[in-house]
Task: structure prediction
Amino acid sequence: MGMIKKKVKITNSADLVKSKAGIIPTDKIRSVEVEAIIDSGARMLCLPADLAETLGLEIVDKRTVRYANGDKDIKNIGSAVKFELMGRQTECRVLIEKTGAPVLVGQIPLEDLDFLIDMAKEDLAVNPESPFMPMAYMY
Result:
């Protein structure tokens, strides 16, 4: 099975709010562009600890994580980020992994942005039912 990688932009949401309020200048908004792995087995946006620190994220919660091999661990949850992928954006909290871990994009941000994973083509696509903006599904 192949791997899907995409360039993403991640910005500290608190910095955006502070900048809009005039508390910090726009050039002080912490933001990064990195290559991320699209991981249908993950639920959240996962960032390595060093990247979370670069973005200035605060620890706001903890979660038990179960890995594919069955191991469990307790990980920190970081404050909200603005997450941008392929022209679409959302805001989400992040799961913080150990330094050096890859950036993983899990199901929650993918569903919020209305992307479909096509493993046959090893690519990510916007939902053809909502080509211009994400669709919210209400049941």
Helices lie at 13-20, 49-54, 107-112. The radius of gyration is 15 Å. The CA atoms of residues 43 and 107 lie 5 Å apart.
